[in-house]
Amino acid sequence: MTEVETLDAPQAAPELDEYPIVVEGLRNAFGDHVIHDNLSLKVRKGEILGVVGGSGTGKSVLMRSIIGLQQPDAGEITVLGHHIGASTDDEGRDMRSRWGVLFQGGALFSTLTVGENVEVPLKQFYPEIEDTLREEIARFKVRLAGLAEEAAYKYPSELSGGMKKRAGLARALALDPELLFLDEPTAGLDPIGAAAFDRLTRSLADNLGLTVFLITHDLDTLHAICDRVAVLADKQVIAVGTIPELLALDHPWIQEYFNGPRGRAALCAKDEFSMKNDAPVAQDGSAPREPFTNTQESGA
Ligand SMILES: Nc1ncnc2c1ncn2[C@@H]1O[C@H](COP(=O)(O)OP(=O)(O)O)[C@@H](O)[C@H]1O
Ligand SMILES: [Mg+2]
């Protein structure tokens, strides 16, 4: 029931349950450099929304605006029913515990082990949890992110690129978030590692009921796991829809991106992905995946 939405289309009144993220009329500028101008976007509950656009079009700035790290010049952002920026300190704190973020560079603390990295948000939001329980929760999140438990005791410098991403994901999952923000999670991974990460993302979204805001350049990722794709161009989200819906639009960037040689190759690869999707996640030095049934009982 997806429909391609353009900014010209009338916007329905936001149903907060249906749309955990609503951005309306967003404007961001750095000096004279206008990044977003009257940008609007609604993310549906439970979907993996891919966010694409040329380099420097403002994908990361959009994500930072949604999570309150970038104060917009204009516009309204509502996340899980709360206005971002207008919240009291307590509300803002509560909101930050309801989403997890994997930043573009991973942003792990290099002097902390993976487990200690995962413990950082737990300590911050639930200081009353005992050390042993907090360590156990951290190890659980490490396994949930598809790493062997031993990885909890390693430092980021001891990990491969794919394992670092998973460690960052474990930290993003620390507080059992409802929303997951991933900024270019497969950038820099080899194709096998990237496909494994994609399967992990899809599996987590399905099993934990997450809504995922996924910035990516990776056409394979878009085809394989995204329910819809939002296209950033000309300072706005020019369209949101499934890839076939976007392909029906006569926009040069969209056509070039999805219908160019790389886009068509990714489409072919999609069938292969679907066939492999039932198999366990391929691991880079990681353990077989746990069933997800106990996830919501992990505390925090
Ligand atoms: N803190 C900042 N100060 C000045 N310019 C910035 C800042 N953050 C981002 N920009 C600029 O905003 C534009 C969009 O950045 P970004 O959102 O990181 O792009 P991308 O779509 O590649 O993620 C870029 O031109 C970038 O240089
Ligand atoms: Mg970016």
From TrEMBL:
It comes from the Bacteria. Residues 278-300 are annotated as: Disordered. The keyword Nucleotide-binding applies. PROSITE patterns: ABC_TRANSPORTER_1, ABC_TRANSPORTER_2. GO terms for molecular function: ATP binding; ATP hydrolysis activity. Pfam families: ABC_tran. Residues 21-259 form the ABC transporter domain. SUPFAM superfamilies: P-loop containing nucleoside triphosphate hydrolases. Keywords: ATP-binding, Nucleotide-binding, Transport. The keyword Transmembrane does not apply. This is ABC transporter ATP-binding protein.
